[in-house]
Amino acid sequence: MTDKPTAAYTSTEVPSLKAENESAPRRKFEDLPPAAQRALREAEERRKQIDAKQQAMPEEVNGRGGLEPTRYDDWEIKGLTVDF
């Protein structure tokens, strides 16, 4: 055993983090299994419902802005804790 760890590559041979299949064609929706298609349709429907609910809410006047802190655990703004 040596005192110095040896790298699998030298500093001039940095490995690429690029995925090897980036040039591979993307799969079409129809090529996915039925369960995956159903899950994607359900997720799209949920997103539409959430967006519709968000649009239906009245605009908050002088509010904190941003996402709902009780849902996303964001209890501070610019380092200051907010209390309701």
Automatic annotation (TrEMBL):
Residues 19-31, 39-51 have a biased composition (Basic and acidic residues). It comes from the Bacteria. InterPro entries: SDHF4. Residues 1-71 are annotated as: Disordered. Signal peptide: none annotated. Belongs to the SDHAF4 family. This is DUF1674 domain-containing protein. It comes from Roseibium marinum.
